[in-house]
Amino acid sequence: MTLLLVSMCLAFILGFSAHRTGICTVAAVAEVRSTRQARMFLSFLKAVLWILFVSSGILLWMPELFRPWPSHAMSWFTVAGGFVFGIGAAINGGCGFSTISRLAQGNLHLTLTLPAFALGAKSALAVLTLSASHPVAAAGLTPGTGGAVEWMIQILLLIWVVRELASLFAPPIKGRHMFSAMLSPHYRLSTGAALNGISGVFLYAINGTWAYSRIVETGVIS
To answer: Going by C-beta distance under 8 Å and a sequence separation of 6 or more, which residues neighbour residue 197?
Structure first.
């Protein structure tokens, strides 16, 4: 029950942040095309760094939580699937994550996206079976096996985290408007990357794979 409540709080933080940052792969591509800037793609990189830092700390504390992610052999089916997914996301006007966020904001025209996604996964099942793309290896390093390189990466990540925290918290603290900043209708992309990365790591540590798209896919295939 306690873990369920913690998961609900983490999911709330994730949705709260997504509503205020609008982080989305489709929006990131649109930003590059329209402004020749890649600030949103940079926020994805920052989210990955937060994930690496927090997850490594969790694994040092509780190594039994290590879950290697199976990778699959590359094939033309995966390339074609990624291309079709990109077309669908462009037509939909948002990636899988932002679709749920926008639906929660009242964009009811996206209601049919979820059943259509399930139908598409069901239709593609036969193609996936023909591709024979079975897991071939476990992605990820077992904690504690990297030696000096692992410690160097951890130190560099710690330096980056301290710098990032100073950048995020110094302005509102100095201006004495921390509470109003928390309730601001718009968050910086760096803030969204931190909240998404940290809350996502803890959700994964507690529940395993939590993305709704993966749950829909697993439910349809099984």
So the answer is: 46, 47, 48, 49, 50, 51, 54
